[in-house]
Specification:
two-stranded parallel sheet, D-Maltodextrin-Binding Protein, domain 2, ten-stranded mixed beta sheet, alpha/beta, about 270 residues
Amino acid sequence: MKKFALIAAMLVFALALPAMAETEIKIDGSTTVLPYMQKMVEAYMKENPGVKMTVSGGGSGNGIKAILDGTTNLAMSSRKMEEKEFERAKSSGAPAIPIAIAIDAIIPIINPANPVNNLTIEQLRGIYTGKITNWKEVGGEDKQIVVISRDTSSGTYEAWEELIMNKERVFPGALLQASSGAVKEVIGKNKYAIAYDGYGYVDKSVKGVSVNGIAGNPDSASNGTYPVSRNLFVITRGEPQGELAKFVAFIMDPAKGQKIVGENGAVPVKK
């Protein structure tokens, strides 16, 4: 009798394994979206304790590649998908579906000890093309500018290139960093460095610089007056189904995921 009960229990467990696997959601991509996503995942798993979720940030390009390859369930991106990426997804039989989840301001950041408070788009472009090399050229001290940029797999890099660089490339002397957190850490330690980061990463360890006299924040990003803002996305492979569809609905719920977006420095797209 005990042997029969043990076999029955093992059978029930074995039958349950596929159902358990269906509740696993893997999320990968943008380090800008990462802090918002981590909080959403934490809140969702608290509401749904039977769901297993993993989230990691390797850059928007890596997240989009993963969703196209089918190695992640949900990609995070701080840039728009390219036409060739849409075509690749379509040819695989599973169209990529980007969903805008927030509006974010990209903020030029410097060390708090640096006296500069405002830069124009033309000055920022000059700094990042290597044409402006000294802080005294933009109202600062007579010191060389240390230029920090995101690497080319970053959606923030691509947004900066589109909004600031006007099709010019970041000059080779710029020091590349692989994540938003790494950028902030470098700026906090170097009085004469400049970088750019999503608004959610700006804290007391760095100073946000106004652009064209307008401070970047959720209000100026949402009303369109701040010139360096972009959408943040999640991307699915085909229409989301099952638990993934429920999680996407959670992200877009004004009282849940969108509330988390607003509480952490970006602008909700649904209120």
